[in-house]
Design brief:
Largest sheet: 5 strands, antiparallel
Number of domains: 1
CATH class: Mainly Beta
CATH topology: Immunoglobulin-like
Mean pLDDT: 83
Number of helices: 1
Helix content: under 10%
CATH architecture: Sandwich
Low-confidence stretches: 6-14
Radius of gyration: 14 Å
């Protein structure tokens, strides 16, 4: 399993976003039904759609740990962003809301 997460975050309606696509590492085909969790204190949950896409919206400024697990029974191994198997080794995904957006809140 492989995941693509933008290095930064996209911004909409005054909040940050993490989105990406989960693909099979060998075939590069999108994988649907993968559980994606993002968190830094609380935990957010999404499941990839038919195109392997997931999205978390309305996020606060923070660095998030993103975990990918097989919740569809396809025997994919647990993985964290950026292609590592432990939370401690995971690259955190930064979400930074631009100052102009923060001021407008």
């Amino acid at each position: 399993m492989s995941a693509t997460v933008p290095a930064g975050a996209a911004f909409a309606a005054g909040a940050g976003q993490i989105s990406g696509t989960v693909t099979d590492a060998a075939s590069n085909t999108p994988i649907s039904g993968v559980c994606v969790d993002a968190g830094y204190g609380g935990l957010l949950h999404a499941t990839t759609d038919a195109a392997g896409h997931y999205e978390f919206d309305n996020l606060d400024d923070h660095s998030y740990t993103v975990e990918f697990s097989d919740c569809s029974g396809n025997d994919y191994l647990l993985q964290y962003y950026d292609n590592v198997s432990t939370a401690g080794a995971a690259a955190r995904v930064p979400v930074v809301v631009p100052a102009a957006v923060v001021a407008a809140r």
